[in-house]
Structure formats: structure tokens, C-alpha cells
Recover the amino acids of this structure.
């Protein structure tokens, strides 16, 4: 018995070993280093002196950092809420269809989701291209007949990137909503129809309350994901006035890799880290509450 | 419910419904129409990008909306395949994505099995750490990943691109959940027959969850192929770039060539698009699993 217990522990650690090594080296160590370094004036590569909370004070007074925070929040608001609501609408529409028509329509909405961000970037910079983009036929009349460079017009930048992000990721949300809708028993709807409930009644009294947990899930997943926005904003701003449209991860990138300020970058990273961990804990609690019901 | 009951019920049902049925169906038709139009709108950018790659450059910049090329050509693909580094980037993407997939799935299956089925010291601690790491935003770690990789002399290498992608808590969590739900009887029967833990894992637990392994492998591959931020930071030399980085960071010396740029993009999307179209069901299953919905 003791032999087999020892054997069990041995096997367990053999199986856990790769995981433990990877996590220790690539996850725990960098996380601890990030926190340490945020209190130093280290460059990107090399040691730094302990400066206490200096970096955090500098972030507090850095205008660019507040711009980055506001842009991130602005982007989150522009992308998360519309894409959650639109995904629900699409899911309701797709869910009415049957068989191959359902899977075809669903594919149309889902296919963009599996594309690399670089491909999304290429497709949309072609569609919105100032000189030859097909969207200019719709944009020019609104701009007094002039073609407009969307990504060089600062007020339009974030809404455009948020819209493209919604185009890219909507399929994921639609999929979750459809899974939720399929879990609602059709008997409830049949009973409601017998009672003469209108389509709107059915939606507001049955679908909406029962789909609410999925709505919360989709919303929080998007929220956490979009706070980490970098790729699209970076790619579309390339060659433009990058600072005006800067987001938080991009600020970390700029301080570390372009200004060579590792300590300051890590201070910003710690703030992003804390923000997302707090939101994730909240999400986890929400999901657990859902699971227990 | 007896037959007559149900007959009465359905008669009432029909009587009550015939009148409003038509009106409701008009609304339903409108909803379906809106959904179809939405799908066309959603698919258009992809179609437009694809069809542009089959046009000669002079047709591409011509005014008007031509939904089909006048002169269908593969010249753009020929050019990018022969004149750019795309082959090399493809190979880099393939090597790193396959490496990430194999390592992540192997590691997660082992850890998931140990945590699910075995009793060992610190088991709860490791489980807690996996759940905790699920919450950590990886982009916050880019600076220290870069420092670590340069200390290990792995910047500008494919191994350096792979490294930080190996943090995949969701995969472990999903494996654990599925191993948890394998009935204990299988285990006990096999133990009586003298099976070792490794045999249990490879002969029972993994084969029983083969579908999950496929689903996780596919979604991990797609994620690794599509990743932009880390490969973009870890590599600066053109020969070591992934395709997602290469197509946005290296520009043709001849100025903007719309059709060629798009042809490169379409080639970059090809593997993941193919994987999705072939394994559609597995992809959707994996996505729902990773969001915490058992599908």
C-alpha cells in the first residue's frame, strides 16, 4: 500500500513536471519580476535602482498615460456593448433557421473570427482605402464628395477600429448565445403560445431572463479581452499620429521598447494587471453563481 | 395525457392561432430577411478581399464595384509566392504553431490527469495556480517575457516565439473536467487488472476523450497561428518572422500593390480557414468549452 502510494506521487509529479517548469519559468517568474521592476528605474535590459512609487507618480502625471486609459475605456465602450447586443440579435435570427441554411448563415458570421488579426487589418484597410476603397462610395457623399482617410481622422479612428473588431469577433458571441438559446426548452415557448403570448412577450418574459446569464458571460469575456486591446489599434495607427489613439498595452509597449523605460512600462503593466485580475475575479464569482444554480 | 385530451388541445391551439398566425409569420419573415442580409454584409469584406486578389492591378484601382474580375489572374499569388519571403514565414508559423500545439496539449493532458485522478502533495495549490493564471492578462507580461527571453538568448529565435505561448491554463482546466467525468468503474476495473497509471492515462482516459484532444489541439493551433503581439515583439529579423508579423511589417519595395498585399493575406488565412471548414464542429465545441459551456 505504501509502495503504491509512493508510486502515485511519483507518477503525479512526472506528469506535472512539464507544467510546473513552464509555469515557474514563464509565468510565476515574469509576474514577480514585473512587480519588482515596477519600483525601479530599470531600462528595458539591465538592472535599475529602487525608486519606490516614483513610476506610479509619473504615470499619474503623464498626460499620455491618461490618454491611453481613456482611449482604452472608449474602445471598450464602443466595442463591448454593441457587439454583445448585436450578437444576441443575430443569434435570435440564426436560431430560427433550420438545417443547412442555419449552418451557412452562422458560418458567414463566424468565419471572420478564425482569421489572424493581420488579415483582418489587410482586408479592412483595403475596403476603407482612401483612394480605391470600395467603402469610399458610401463615405465620400457624407464628406462633401471628398474621399476620407478614416484612420488618419482622429475622431473616427476608435469607432472604426471598434466596428472592425466587432466584425472580427462577433461570431464568438453569436456562438455562445446560440448555445444558450438551444438550452431553453421549446416546451416553454409552446406553452406561452397556447396562452397567446406575443412574440415580444415571449422574448421579454422567457428568452431574455433565461439568456441573461449568457449575456453576462459574453459581456465580461469581451470586457476583459478588449481591455487588452493592442493589435488592431497598433496596426491601423501605423504611420499615423500614434499617440493620439494610444491604448494601455500600446503605452506599455512604447515605454519599454521605444523609450527603453522598463521600470515605467512595468508600473503601467502592474496597473493593467490589477485591473484585469479584479474584473476576472468578479467574472469568476458570477460564473460560479451561475454554475451553482 | 390521453389521445382525446391532446386532440382537444391541438384543436384549441389551431383555433386560437389561425388568425394571428399570418401576422406573426410576416414579422418572422422580416427577421429572417434581416438575418440573411446581415450575413451577406458580414461575408462581403471577405469576399471582396478574396476576389480582389484575382484581378490584375490595373483592374483593382479602376473606379466602380466589379464583383468578378474581368481578366481572372493568379499572377498576384505567383508574384508573392516567388518574390517574397512568404514561404519562409509560412514555415516559421507552421513550426511554432505545431510546436505550441503539441507541447500545450501534452502538458495539459498530463497535468489535467494528475490533478483529476491522483492524490499528491500540493495538488490543491497547483489547481489554484491554474485557476489564478486564467485571470492574468498575458499582454501585461510582455516586458518581462522579453527580458527573460533575451536572458535566455532566445530573442529572434523560433523557440523564443513558442515560449510564452505555453501558458495555457484553459486547456488544463478542460482536461481535468473531462477526466473528472470518466466513471470510476473503468479505473477500478483496470487497476484490478494490474494497469499502471500511465496505462490508465494512455489506454483509457485519453482514448475516451479523444474528441476533446482533437478539439483542444485545433483551437490551440488556430490561436498560435493567429497570435500577433508576442511574435511581433520576439522577432525583428525578417527570416524568423511568423506570417502574421511578416505580412504587416515587411513592405514591398515597389510601393503599395493592393492585390498582392491581399494575396499574401489570403495565403496567411488559408490554413486556419481550412482547419475551420474541415473541423467546424470541433472548433465550435472547443470555443464553447473554453468559455465554460459544455457543448
Amino acid at each position: 500500500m505504501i509502495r503504491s502510494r509512493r508510486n502515485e506521487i511519483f507518477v503525479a509529479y512526472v506528469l506535472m513536471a512539464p507544467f510546473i517548469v513552464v509555469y515557474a519559468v514563464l509565468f510565476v517568474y515574469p509576474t514577480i519580476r514585473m512587480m519588482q521592476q515596477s519600483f525601479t528605474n530599470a531600462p528595458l535590459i539591465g538592472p535599475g535602482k529602487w525608486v519606490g512609487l516614483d513610476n506610479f507618480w509619473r504615470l499619474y502625471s503623464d498626460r499620455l498615460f491618461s490618454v491611453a486609459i481613456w482611449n482604452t475605456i472608449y474602445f471598450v465602450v464602443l466595442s463591448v456593448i454593441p457587439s454583445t447586443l448585436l450578437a444576441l440579435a443575430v443569434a435570435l435570427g440564426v436560431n430560427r433557421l433550420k438545417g443547412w441554411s442555419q449552418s451557412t448563415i452562422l458560418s458567414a458570421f463566424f468565419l471572420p473570427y478564425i482569421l489572424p488579426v493581420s488579415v483582418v487589418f489587410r482586408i479592412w484597410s483595403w475596403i476603407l482605402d482612401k483612394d480605391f476603397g470600395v467603402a469610399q462610395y458610401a463615405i465620400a457623399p457624407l464628406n462633401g464628395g471628398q474621399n476620407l482617410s478614416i484612420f488618419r481622422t482622429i475622431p473616427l479612428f476608435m469607432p472604426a477600429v471598434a466596428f472592425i473588431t466587432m466584425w472580427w469577433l462577433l461570431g464568438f458571441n453569436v456562438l455562445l448565445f446560440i448555445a444558450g438559446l438551444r438550452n431553453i426548452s421549446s416546451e416553454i415557448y409552446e406553452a406561452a403560445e397556447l396562452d397567446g403570448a406575443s412574440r415580444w412577450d415571449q422574448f421579454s418574459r422567457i428568452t431574455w431572463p433565461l439568456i441573461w446569464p449568457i449575456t453576462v458571460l459574453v459581456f465580461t469575456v469581451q470586457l476583459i479581452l478588449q481591455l487588452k486591446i493592442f493589435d488592431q489599434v497598433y496596426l491601423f495607427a501605423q504611420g499615423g499620429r500614434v499617440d493620439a489613439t494610444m491604448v494601455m498595452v500600446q503605452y506599455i509597449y512604447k515605454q519599454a521598447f521605444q523609450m527603453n523605460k522598463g521600470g515605467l512600462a512595468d508600473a503601467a503593466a502592474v496597473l493593467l494587471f490589477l485591473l484585469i485580475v479584479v474584473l476576472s475575479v468578479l467574472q469568476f464569482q458570477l460564473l460560479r453563481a451561475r454554475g451553482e444554480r | 395525457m390521453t389521445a382525446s385530451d391532446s386532440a382537444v388541445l391541438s384543436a384549441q391551439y389551431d383555433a386560437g392561432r389561425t388568425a394571428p398566425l399570418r401576422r406573426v409569420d410576416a414579422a418572422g419573415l422580416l427577421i429572417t430577411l434581416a438575418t440573411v442580409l446581415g450575413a451577406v454584409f458580414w461575408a462581403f469584406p471577405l469576399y471582396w478581399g478574396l476576389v480582389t486578389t484575382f484581378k490584375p492591378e490595373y483592374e483593382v484601382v479602376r473606379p466602380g464595384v466589379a464583383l468578378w474580375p474581368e481578366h481572372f489572374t493568379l499572377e498576384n499569388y505567383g508574384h508573392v509566392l516567388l518574390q517574397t519571403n512568404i514561404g519562409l514565414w509560412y514555415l516559421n508559423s507552421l513550426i511554432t504553431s505545431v510546436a505550441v500545439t503539441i507541447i500545450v496539449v501534452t502538458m495539459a493532458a498530463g497535468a489535467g490527469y494528475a490533478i483529476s485522478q491522483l492524490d499528491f502533495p500540493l495538488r490543491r495549490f497547483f489547481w489554484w495556480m491554474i485557476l489564478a493564471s486564467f485571470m492574468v492578462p498575458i499582454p501585461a507580461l510582455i516586458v518581462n517575457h522579453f527580458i527573460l527571453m533575451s536572458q535566455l538568448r532566445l530573442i529572434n529565435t523560433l523557440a523564443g516565439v513558442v515560449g510564452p505561448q505555453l501558458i495555457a491554463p484553459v486547456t488544463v482546466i478542460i482536461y481535468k473536467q473531462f477526466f473528472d467525468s470518466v466513471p470510476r468503474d473503468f479505473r477500478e476495473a483496470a487497476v484490478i487488472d494490474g494497469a499502471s497509471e500511465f496505462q490508465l492515462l494512455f489506454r483509457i482516459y485519453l482514448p475516451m476523450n479523444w474528441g476533446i484532444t482533437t478539439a483542444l489541439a485545433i483551437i490551440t493551433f488556430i490561436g498560435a497561428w493567429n497570435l500577433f503581439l508576442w511574435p511581433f515583439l520576439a522577432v525583428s529579423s525578417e527570416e524568423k518572422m511568423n506570417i502574421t508579423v511578416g505580412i504587416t511589417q515587411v513592405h514591398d519595395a515597389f510601393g503599395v500593390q493592393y492585390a498582392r498585399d491581399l494575396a499574401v493575406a489570403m495565403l496567411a488565412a488559408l490554413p486556419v480557414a481550412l482547419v475551420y471548414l474541415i473541423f467546424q464542429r470541433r472548433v465550435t465545441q472547443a470555443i464553447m468549452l473554453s468559455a465554460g459551456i459544455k457543448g
